[in-house]
Amino acid sequence: MAFFIEVLISGLMAGVLYSLVALGFVLIFKASGVFNFAQGAMVLFAALTFVRLIDILSETFAPILLSLAITIVVMIVLAIVIERLVLRPLVNQPGISLFMATLGIAYFLDGFGQSIWGSDVYALDIGIPKDSMFILESVFEGGILVSSEDLVATLIAGVLVATLAIFFQRTRVGRALRAVADDHQAAQSVGIPLNYIWVVVWSVAGLVALVAGAVWGSKLGVQFSLSLIALKALPVLILGGFESVVGAIVGGLIIGVGEKLSEIYLGPIIGGGIENWFAYVLALFFLLFRPQGLFGEKHIDRV
Question: Helix 245-265 vs helix 148-170: angle between axes, to the nearest 10 degrees?
Fold first, then answer.
C-alpha cells in the first residue's frame, strides 16, 4: 500500500507540472480560439533568458530575484510586440491564419533565443532542494519516499494554477476572454478592448511559461528539448477541454497519475516505455468518444 501511495503522489506531482504548461495554452485559446503552437517555444525562451541573466548578474546583489524581474519585463515586452506586429493585423481573420502565426512565432523564438543565448545546456539552480525525504513514517512502515524538488515544484505550480483559476473566474478580464474567443468583432462592438485583452493574456501566458521553464529547467537543465514539453501538454488539453482551466488541472493530474501507475504495474507485463506513449493513447481514446474533453463544451452548428 505504501508503494502504491508513493507512486500515486509522484504521479500527482508530475500532473500538476503538466497542468501548469497546459494552462498557457488555455489562456491563448480562450482569448483567440486558436491553439498556440508557440507556447513551448515561450517556455524555452523564458527559461533561457532567466538562466543566462543569472550568469551575467552573478556578481550583483540577489541575482536570481533581479534576473527574475528582468525576465518578467522581457516576457511582457514580447507580448506587446506579438500583439502589435502579429495579432492586430489578423483580427477577424480565419483561425488557420492565427494558428500559422503562432507557428511562425515559435520558430522565431527558437532561433532568436539560440542567437542571443546560445544552444548549450545550462544548469539552473533556483534554490530548490534536490534531496529526497520520507513522509508519513508514523502511518506506513519505513515511510513514503518523496523528492523534495518535486514537492517544492508542485507547490509553486499549484499556487500559480490556483491564482490563474481565480483570475479566470473572478476578474473582468477573465470573464471577457470567452466573448473575445467566440467573436472578435462582436466583442469589440460591446466595448471589450480586444488589443488590451490580447496583451494581458499573452503577458500572463509568458509568465506561466517563465514559471514552467524555471521549474522544468531546474529539474532537467535548460536546453532546447524544453520546447517539447508542449507535446505533453496537448493530451492534457484534449482530456480536459481546450477552454477549461479546471479541465487543464484535472487532465494533467489524470495523465500524471496514469503514466506512473501504468509504467509500474503494466510495464512488467507488456513491456517498458509506457510512460512515453500513455498520454497520447488516452488522448486518442477521448478524441474518438468525447472529442470536446471532460470539461469542454459541445458545439452544435445548426444550418
Answer: 150
Q: Is the Cβ–Cβ distance between 104 and 37 less than 8 Å?
A: no
3-state SS, the chain, equals CHHHHHHHHHHHHHHHHHHHHHHHHHHHHHHHCCCCCCHHHHHHHHHHHHHHHHHHCCCCCCHHHHHHHHHHHHHHHHHHHHHHHHHHHHCCCCHHHHHHHHHHHHHHHHHHHHHHHCCCCECCCCCCCCCEEEECCCCCCCCEEEEHHHHHHHHHHHHHHHHHHHHHHHCHHHHHHHHHHHCHHHHHHCCCCHHHHHHHHHHHHHHHHHHHHHHHHHHHCECHHHHHHHHHHHHHHHHHCCCCHHHHHHHHHHHHHHHHHHHHHCHHHHCCCHHHHHHHHHHHHHHHHCCCCCCCCCCCCCC
Confidence of residue 299 (pLDDT cuts 50, 70, 90): low
Residue of 212, 224, 69, 75 whose CA lies nearest to 153: 212
Give the fold, CATH level 3, of 2-289: ABC transporter involved in vitamin B12 uptake, BtuC (1.10.3470)
145, β-bridge pairs: 134
User: What is the reported pTM?
Assistant: 0.84
C-beta of residue 114 within 8 angstroms of C-beta of residue 224: yes
Q: CA 32: distance to chain centroid?
A: 17
For residue 102, give the nearest of 39, 37, 40, 41 by alpha carbon: 37
Least confident interval from 28-37, 66-75, 114-123: 28-37
- The 10s digit of each residue's pLDDT in 231-253 is 778 888 888 888 777 888 888 88
In the chain, domain spans: 2-289
pLDDT at 71: 94
